[in-house]
Amino acid sequence: MKERVILHCDCNSFFASVETALNPRYANVPLAVCGSEEERHGIVLAKNQLAASYGIKTAETVFSARKKCPGLVIARPHYSEYEKFSRKANEIYRRYTDMVEQFGIDESWLDVTASQKLFGSGYDIACRISRDIKHELGITVSIGVSFNKVFAKLGSDYKKPDAITVIDAESVEKIVYPLPVTDLLFVGTKTARALMAMGIRTVGDLAKTSPEMLKSRFGKNGEMLHKYAAGLDDSPVQCDSMDDAKSIGNGYTFKSDLKDHSEIIKAIDFLVEEIGVKLRERGEKCATVQITIKDMNFRSIQRQCPQEPPTDISSEIASTAFELLKSEWQSNTPIRMLTVTALNLVKSSDAPTQISMFDANTDETREKQHRSEEIVDKIRQKFGNAAIKKGVTTDD
Predict the structure, then answer these.
(1) pLDDT classification of 222: cutoffs 50, 70, 90
(2) Active-site choice (107, 273, 284, 373)
(3) Contact predicate 314/373, CB 8 Å
(4) What is the domain extent for residue 120?
(5) Is 274 among the catalytic positions?
(6) Residue 199: phi, psi to the nearest 5?
(7) Contacting residues for 233 by C-beta, under 8 A, at least 6 apart
(8) Is 201 in the same domain as 285?
(9) pTM given for the model
(10) Model confidence pLDDT, tens digit, residues 104-115
């Protein structure tokens, strides 16, 4: 079987880079994109390289960041712009392959195995993508080139910013094995502590550990850990055709784990807003809502429930998703990754409109909400996504 060629593209300091592309005055100053600066608990969502040189970390408080760098420039987040840049970046990726899997707002995997006949080697394609992103979007991207998804991601993390790293079979022991085990996909703090207690500190240590020993300690996740470290990951790049999609989903891997209901509500609202827009654009409603959740130790669950009646109203999908999450997820377990998916799509004209007699919403209320979201869609289409924002996601 021909060896696959997988790219992992990671837009560097994405939020901060987008803010700088929109506002060139930020180019030569230490910049942090933060939540509400007026609130002491506002946190750093992203920072540029100058801010990082002061030791500023993602997820630390604005108060702490300013102590490290009194001249720090604060930018408020503009999520609609980040979504726009993300879409444009993925459109660039699709010039080179139709096999693109988005992994959060700023990262994507690409399978370019077949594309080499048209565009050259994986490295050549990475160079083309890097050039296009820089010239068209005004931001930079770090790209890993390898034979599986896990090592491609390690490659994109290996050198930053604006770098391309090739990890082929011959360079695994030189590049991958010395890396700390925490660099491996889905190895969180708790798992890393357990591995270090076993004397496993590097990816190479993990690759050389008996799979049976890892399974006895971590269950089936132990087998996955060994598979990832040894370069045996064969998971495909998952891609959907948007022209014939049977579902519409939106997911995000969070830099800081979600720990309470207020954070989770904001995250779900952020994810579901785009799902509602796409449903209304396509003239469809969803009859089922699904959530996928992963914690810091890559424990994962996927649950779904009917959405009655079928809807394209973002707030209704968000409500269903949150209730489903509350019933299925331990409230004291931080969430690393969250995806909401609208399933069982039906044409709006075919969707039943009768609601349950126990539902507090009336037909009139639902119709008003639907019209309200359609008006927001039209405003954004005319004036851009930044023209109107949802309050719950603006401050954090």
Answers:
(1) confident
(2) 107
(3) yes
(4) 1-170
(5) no
(6) 85, 15
(7) 148, 149, 150, 151, 227
(8) no
(9) 0.65
(10) 788 999 999 999
